[in-house]
Amino acid sequence: MESINTPMVGREGEQAELAAFVTTAAGQALVLRGETGVGKTSLLGHAVALAEQEGHTIIRAAGVEAESELPYAGLHQFLHPLLSEVAQLDGGTRAVFDAVFGWAEGDPPSVMRLGIAVLSLLSLAAAQQPLLVVLDDGQWLDDSSADVCGFVGRRLAGSPVKLLIAVRTDMASRFDTAALPERSVAALADEDAALLLDRRYPRLGKQIRRTVLEQARGNPLALLELPAHLGGRAGDQAVDDLIDQHGVSLPRRLQQLYGARIAALSDGVRAELLMGALDGVGTEPGGGPPGVRYRMHDADEAVAAGLLDIKPTTGDLTFRHPLVRSAVVQMATPNQRRAAHQALSQVHRENLERRATHLAAATLDPDEDVADILEAAAESATRRGGALTAVTWLTRAAELSENHTDRSRRLADAAFVAGHAARLGQAHRLVVSGLTPGQASSPTSVLASAYQALYQDGDVRSTQRQVMAAIEQLRDGRSTEPEEVLTRLVILLLAISQYAGEHPTWQRTHELLVSLGDVVTGRTRIYSAAWSDVIRYGAECAGVVEQATANLPALEPWEVSRLAVSAYHLDILSQYRPYLQRVVDRELETGAAASGVVMLHLIMLDQMAVGEWDEAEGTGQRSLDLAAEYGHALFAVQSRAYLAQLAAMRGQVGRARDLQAEVDAWARPRGVGFLTQLADSAGATAALSAGDYEAAYLYAIGITPPGTFLPYTYQASRTLLDLVEAARHTGRVEQARVHALAARDAGLPELSPRLALITHGALAMTADSEPEAAEMFARAESHPDVARFPFELARIRLAHGIRVRHVQGRVTARQYLVPAAEAFERLGAVGWAERARAELRAAGTPPRASTLDLASLTWQERRIADLAAGGLTNKEIGERMHLSPRTVGSHLYRVFPKLGITTRAALRDALSRTEEVSQV
């Protein structure tokens, strides 16, 4: 233990900062960053000594290279002293720790949820006295634990908890992007390096002293270790050898110094050190929870050689420095390492994941028992949020499989998990590695390559042919692959067909599924019905999809996503959204990125449906950013399509058209009908918002002609109101009526609550008589789920109010026009809001000032609005407020609907009007 009364040479600035860090009352985090051997651990020890003097509770831990792939190993290490206090936390928080540490079954939580649980535990531990958590060698903390530490470190303000972390500059780590305060620990200045060397070795010869100072370059570990090395060898030769290694990195040279000492040890002691090194025995003081790692013994020889220290509190042997541990492993032969791993697998026979780690390294030849253990460990890692670790273990299990069938099955599982973890290239490489030389593509390799081609390139044409051929190969017995491969191929074929969005593709898909008979599961048949043509097949699956919400936590994330996609087509997505919102962060943060992006799309669609448009904008942008980051071009374009539809609804016509053009230009040449239909739908909605009814009609009939709902055309039913409204406003009354009647005759009201609402609304708009119009409107307005679709309801009320004004007079019309106008304003549907206000004026009631007035503007939005009203451009505003022109434009997009306007020119009047109203 360092003493604060023992001065460190040349570290006055670092010590002063650490003193301020420890003594301040506020909770905070600090990262010490420096090269190997620069003295980070000594500074941590100094901070600990000072904190103990100040009455802090201390928790110390260290990242260990051997555990960097074990999910939450680091978190378990530094929380171990506090785990007895978990019982005092609430049930929900306890369940988080149960799931993460495998104490009980449960979904792995997101980083946010786990981070909040850790904060609760740390706050509980610090209730009586302040707490200092010290993490050394943070670069070796497993990714899951490092992410949680970063989350916690950013949220310690106001708590009595401090977090101090040391990381190496020569190794990448998750702390590089953790956004925590940092202090760089540099090499010692020349005079301080000389002072440290002289204090430790006062009688060092001049030549060796000069050489050490030159070679150490101010690194304290090198200053302390090099003289001992040189003193044990012929002086001139030792100096020459050291100078000859000038091009070798300092950590490497220090490792070689330790290697020379290790080589001088007896075989038994070296074997003992190897067991400790391979099991992650740390350097002082981080040793981990008792009983977790191997305990070295009978190694006094290594202590005497300066390779090990004795932990004063427990008597355990620990490595003096991580470089010693690395040198021990590198000097061992492959057979020695395998033997040590085999012995360690017995030490950890009760710990599945640790045992699997050692068996994977110990086993050379195929061994089905070891492969089974690795497969079980992969399943455990997946449940706890370690998808990428699971891929590694499944791949190793495949390598150790004793027969081709099990090898293919495990590689297929690894590829499947990798694909859902947004590692499409890795998934493809995995299955290709399972092919023997000269072997044609297997169904498993087709599965991986088709995933990659679809999601990265939007290839629906060739992927459909390849996947269908692979399914036929399995159906006809021309290939022996695990049953899961056939199921996954069928699901992928359904996804390809959905994105293709055309009749011939779906017809071939349905015919193939029929030929498979009972091999196709009941749930797969539900997907086939809901994803293909909800008008023709949806009635048979709505009940099943609704019932499935009761069992979502027991399903794999990709299964939840598939059911939720079905719910979207059936307009019952709101029942799934609470669960999706709870787990989406977990999916993204634990590796299942593909499922996570799909969940974000679904959350956005429901937010759009229920009128949470600001939230939908944020969700859509997040999905776009993630899809672009992972190289999923298909998902990125899909995000733009949904953002285009949202912009169209809000009256942001220019933005909607720009996004629509991007989507169309990418999707149409590839034949991705799902996205081209979305682009046409956004075009129709944007044109309606701008009052361009002729353009809206042309977009709508590009999706489906009046009076028909083309098979497998997803947007045909969803654009029912668009086509009817556009037809009526362009004098095509007969086409509007025919289309509304076709919706009724096709049974749309029985398929989903939204389709019931808009079908009855369309019938009310096109009714031949007033009693029929009143009856259809009443059916629409009284539907029990009408509140879930405020935008459609407001459009129907507006249309009915216009009709009533012409037939029954202005007073009667107001009861429909007023709630329509208020709903449009609340939603921020600018074009429709202006139209509703115009109708209110025609009905003899001047619309009251917008309910979304200046009070709803933030300070920054108000300032930007004032400057824009004064005639400044976005660039000029940005220069004044230190914002980019794009950010200014984004703020104005939000300001316009709040003020009930659509153009920059209307800003001055809107600001004046709302100010007058506020003064009344």
From TrEMBL:
Domain HTH luxR-type: where? 850-915
As given in the record, the signal peptide range reads none
InterPro entries (alphabetical):
AAA_16 (IPR041664), P-loop_NTPase (IPR027417), Sig_transdc_resp-reg_C-effctor (IPR016032), Tscrpt_reg_LuxR_C (IPR000792), WH-like_DNA-bd_sf (IPR036388)
Does DNA-binding show up as a keyword for this record? yes
One Pfam family cited in the UniProt record for this chain:
GerE
Q: Which GO terms describe its molecular function?
A: DNA binding
Write out the GO biological process terms: regulation of DNA-templated transcription
Query: What UniProt keywords apply to this chain's record, in alphabetical order?
Result: DNA-binding, Transcription, Transcription regulation
Give a yes or no for keyword DNA-binding in this entry. yes
Name of protein: Helix-turn-helix transcriptional regulator
The protein's organism comes out as: Streptomyces botrytidirepellens
